[in-house]
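Memo subject: From amino acid sequence to discrete backbone structure tokens
Action wanted: Derive the backbone structure tokens from the amino acid sequence.
How to read it: Take the token row as a discrete description of the fold.
Attached in line: The record itself begins immediately under this heading.
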Amino acid sequence: MTTKVLTMDAMTLPDADAVIARAKRGDPVALEQVYRAYSTPAYNLARRICRTTEDAEDVLQETFFEVCRSIRNYRGDGSLWGWIRTITSSKALMRLRRNKYRDTDELVDDIAPARSSSPALKMDLENALDRLTDTARAVVWLHDVEGFTHEEIATQMGKTTSFSKSQLARAHARLRVWLGEESRS
């Protein structure tokens, strides 16, 4: 008896291989199936990287324009979601740069201003992440949640691997402080 491991593709896109083959031929129904299967996780990823819902919606649209334009080039080496996830994160990072949210090239103290210094504020992880700069938040999300390597993050951001590592270390230190301070309030 063999057990089949279900990938996100198998769970979200029934008969994924056939749908992908049709999408590669430009079948609009298949392309819509791909969109319906992956638009929610792609939007959620974009929303985690971008500050606003408007930017995340734009990233989602840009992502699926790119998917429709480039699906013929999808080789199937990894999962379709992995390919779409890479496109989404790349588009979201480009959006940050385009909106001039980008940090300077220097490794400066990148603490974003807190929304409130009230001791009554009950800080949770979501609020703590929101206090990070856009770059630090993107690195944390891509590395810790999405599982990108520092090399992949560096490539997408046009930075060095050590930049990604230092951003992650600084962000983790800040999160520990912020979450620790708030839990004692």
